[in-house]
Design a protein that fits this description.
Strand content: 15-25%
Helix content: 40-55%
Number of strands: 13
Order of helices and strands: EHEEHEHHEHEEHEEEHEEHEHH
CATH topology: Rossmann fold
CATH superfamily: NAD(P)-binding Rossmann-like Domain
Largest sheet: 7 strands, parallel
Structural class: alpha/beta
Length: 309
C-alpha cells in the first residue's frame, strides 16, 4: 500500500512517517513544503510539495499514484487564521480542493485506480455549547479557522473519492527538533521555573496523544474505512484539570496554577467552551484504543529523555 502524507514536517506528519517507515507492507511517501526536517531520513521517500499549488499537487500525485493520501497539512494557529485569512483559506481549503481534484483526475484516467483520501479535521468546527460530542453533531464554527476546516470537510464529502475525515482534539506530542510546545510542556516548563500560570477552567477537551492520532489514521487507511471518525483521547478534562494532572505527574507546585475564564484571556479567535469527543465508533469499527492522558505524559517523558541522550 502506497501511503502519501502531506505536512510530514509537522507533529502528526512526523509520527505517521515514523510509524510507517520500514514497514514491509507499506511504501511511505512523505511530503512537505521545503526540506525534510525529520531526524530519520531512511525507510521512506521524500518529495517537496506545496499543496496550495495545484500544478505541484497534480505532478507529485501523478508521480506516485498513492493508494492513500493522509492530509495532515494545515494552518492550525487559530489566532493567526483570524488575522491572516487569505493564508488560512489557501492552506486549509484551496489546498484540500487541489488534492481532491488531482486524485479525481487520476481516478478518471485510470478506472482501476481507487485512491482513499483521509483528511484531518477538528473539534473547533463546533460551537462548544455541550460535550463530549459524537460524529453526528451539527457543526457551528465560531472562528475563521473553524470555518475553513468545515469548508474543507464539505469539499471532501462532496468528492467522488473514497474518503474519510478524522476529527481530533487538542493534540500533544514531541517533534524531532523540539521546536513546538504543547499544553503538557507549557505547564511543565512554567511550573519548573516557578512561574504563575493562568489556566482556563471553562474550556473542556479530550486531549489526544499524537501517536494515538497517527494510529487512528493508519487504522482508517488499513481498513479503507469511509466516513467521519472521532479520533481523540478518552479522558474528558477542563484545561485547568489537565494542568493539574501535569503538575501532579511531575510533582510540581499546583499553587502556581491560577484558574481563569476564557473571557479574561484576550485572544483574536473565539474558542468553543466545551468539546471533547465520544470515540465509540472508532473503537468499534477500527479497533482504536488510545492511551490515557497520564500514559501519554509518560510517553512524552520517555521521548524527551531519549532525545537528551
Amino acid at each position: 500500500m502506497k501511503i502519501l502524507i502531506t505536512g510530514s514536517n509537522g507533529l502528526l506528519g512526523q509520527k505517521l512517517v515514523y510509524k510507517l517507515r520500514n514497514r514491509t507492507d507499506v511504501t511511505c511517501i512523505a511530503t512537505a513544503r521545503g526540506n525534510n526536517r525529520l531526524a530519520k531520513q531512511d525507510g521512506y521517500s521524500y518529495d517537496v510539495l506545496d499543496i496550495t499549488d495545484s500544478e505541484n499537487v497534480n505532478q507529485v500525485f501523478a508521480k506516485y499514484l498513492p493508494d492513500v493520501v493522509i492530509n495532515t497539512a494545515a494552518m492550525t494557529n487559530v489566532d493567526a487564521c483570524e488575522t491572516e485569512k487569505e493564508a488560512c483559506w489557501a492552506m486549509n481549503v484551496t489546498a484540500v480542493d487541489n488534492q481532491v481534484k488531482a486524485l479525481e483526475i487520476l481516478k478518471n484516467k485510470n478506472p482501476n485506480y481507487h485512491p482513499h483520501f483521509i483528511h484531518l479535521s477538528t473539534d473547533f468546527i463546533f460551537d462548544g455549547t455541550h460535550g463530549p460530542l459524537d460524529e453526528n453533531e451539527t457543526p457551528n464554527p465560531l472562528s475563521y479557522y473553524a470555518e475553513s476546516k468545515l469548508a474543507a470537510e464539505k469539499i471532501v464529502q462532496a468528492s467522488a473519492l473514497d474518503w474519510a475525515i478524522a476529527r481530533t482534539v487538542l493534540v500533544f506530542g514531541i517533534v524531532d527538533n523540539m521546536s513546538r510546545s504543547n499544553i503538557v510542556l507549557w505547564v511543565k516548563s512554567n511550573l519548573e521555573q516557578g512561574k504563575v500560570i493562568n489556566v482556563v477552567d471553562d474550556q473542556f477537551r479530550t486531549p489526544t496523544l499524537a501517536e494515538d492520532l497517527a494510529d487512528g489514521c493508519i487504522l482508517i487507511a488499513q481498513k479503507r474505512a469511509k466516513g467521519i471518525y472521532n479520533i481523540s483521547g478518552k479522558d474528558f478534562y477542563s484545561i485547568l484539570e489537565l494542568a493539574n494532572v501535569v503538575a501532579d505527574y511531575y510533582k510540581l507546585d499546583k499553587s502556581l496554577i491560577k484558574p481563569s475564564k476564557s473571557a479574561d484571556i484576550k485572544q483574536p479567535a473565539k474558542r468553543p467552551p466545551i468539546t471533547g469527543f465520544i470515540i465509540d465508533k472508532a473503537k468499534k469499527e477500527l479497533g482504536y484504543n488510545p492511551h490515557s492522558f497520564t500514559e501519554g505524559i509518560k510517553i512524552l517523558e520517555e521521548q524527551i529523555n531519549e532525545m537528551s541522550k
